[in-house]
């Protein structure tokens, strides 16, 4: 026997749901939307924070035109787009492969689950500190490994994170 149920919400249910959503909407507006809107407003103005009581002066799109002429900004934007594209693509591919491996019930999937859960136990701050120490140019293991493996080709020590061509792949 099929049990039918009326899934239409009454007006009272809609009001109650909006009442429950209202605190979240207010907090989101105060912490995200208002600062974002103010930042967009200031981007169209010339405003100096280091001068007390200074007033924003409307300058239109000249800030954006100035950014587009700056070679360092263009290089930074390019690096961010490359990094975001590669990292999201790799996360998607690895995530799908790992999900397919873990969906089976065998010994390999149990090992993979263990390998995946171990980093979740370590706090992200500890992991970040360890990576910072490993990539340090003075006593880092990664820089030492690259120096040791390329000693015959290079006569001087080269920091991996200090070279532009190496910094982006390390991230």
Descriptors:
171 residues, mainly alpha, 7 helices, 2 strands, 2% strand, flat
Instruction: Specify the biggest β-sheet.
Output: 2 strands, antiparallel
Uncertain residue segments: none
Number of DSSP helices? 7
Residue share in helices? 55-70%
> Which structural class do you get from the secondary structure elements?
mainly alpha
Biggest β-sheet: strands ordered side by side in the sheet: 1-2
Give the overall shape: flat
The first-to-last residue Cα distance is 59 Å
Rounded radius of gyration (Å): 26 Å
| Strand fraction | under 5%
N to C succession of SSEs: HEEHHHHHH
Kindly state the mean pLDDT as a whole number? 82
- The number of E-state strands comes to 2
Written overview of the protein:
This protein has 7 helices and 2 strands. Helices cover 67% and strands 2% of the residues. It is mainly α and 171 residues long.
Task: Describe the secondary-structure layout.
Blueprint: H1 11-43, E1 45-46, E2 57-58, H2 62-69, H3 71-102, H4 107-121, H5 124-134, H6 141-149, H7 164-170
Antiparallel strand pairs: 1-2
Summarize the structure.
The chain has helices at 11-43, 62-69, 71-102, 107-121, 124-134, 141-149, 164-170, and strands at residues 45-46, 57-58. With 171 residues, it is mainly alpha-helical. Strands 1-2 form a two-stranded antiparallel sheet.
């Amino acid at each position: 026997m099929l049990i039918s149920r009326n899934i239409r919400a009454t007006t009272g249910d809609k009001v109650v749901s909006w009442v429950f959503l209202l605190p979240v909407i207010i907090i989101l507006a105060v912490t995200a939307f208002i600062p974002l809107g103010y930042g967009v407003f200031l981007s169209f103005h010339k405003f100096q924070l280091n001068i007390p009581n200074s007033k924003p002066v409307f300058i239109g799109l000249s800030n954006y035109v100035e950014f587009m002429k700056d070679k360092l900004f263009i290089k930074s934007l390019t690096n961010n787009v490359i990094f975001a594209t590669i990292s999201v693509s790799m996360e998607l591919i690895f995530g799908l492969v790992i999900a397919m491996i873990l969906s089976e019930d065998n010994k390999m999937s149990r090992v993979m689950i263990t390998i995946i859960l171990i980093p979740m136990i370590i706090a992200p701050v500890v992991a970040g500190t360890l990576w910072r120490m490993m990539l340090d140019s003075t006593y880092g293991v990664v820089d030492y490994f690259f120096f040791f493996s390329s000693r015959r080709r290079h006569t001087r020590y080269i920091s991996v994170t200090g070279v532009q061509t190496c910094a982006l792949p390390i991230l």
